[in-house]
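We treat protein structure as text, and this decision shapes the records that our systems exchange. Because each token names a local backbone shape, the row as a whole describes the fold. An entry from our holdings is shown next, in its original layout:
>
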Amino acid sequence: DLAVAELKKTVELGLDNESVHRALGFIYKEKGLYELAVGEFKRVLEDNPDSSIHLVLGRLYREKKDYDSAVREIKKVFQFGLDNGEAHFLLATLYREKGEYDLAESELKKALELGPQNGNLHYELGLIYEIKRDYAASIEQMQIALKKGIGEESLPSALARVSRKQRVIAEFQRAINIEPVKDKDSPESLMDIMDPILDYMFQEGYRAF
């Protein structure tokens, strides 16, 4: 609070500049005063166009659940003529939260082109494929992330979850597509296939879905 008071005094004395508004913006951000922070960072951009400030504003709008404004702000980063992996990742996160999974996938792939060694991007892409029910692609991305040794504690359980989904769906498809069997003693009757599936789902407590 003392720092805010001193910085405001500077503004009142007419000595305000880009650095003062930048400092106030970060202080307000840390305090969770997002509206005030947005105002200060906009003042920064009036004096000094800065791609990093657009990223900060994008995050602030996301905290406020104003996803459309967040997307617009982050897209401005690319107007500076540089591709930015962090911006692509933030856009992917926003699109995922908005339920626009194809756009999220596209942004993650762009981020991976810029940072192919980033295992977290593979993990996030795996989660997108899981949502889109492309379990094979999801498993592939999560296995890559696992090999790269990312620090995400939820990765092993997520990989196990998607693998369960893939196995159960595969067995259902096999059951649905099997040709009718006339021989009642055949081990390939419909119930011979369905029984182990149902047993598996019961043992797993329906965690596969």
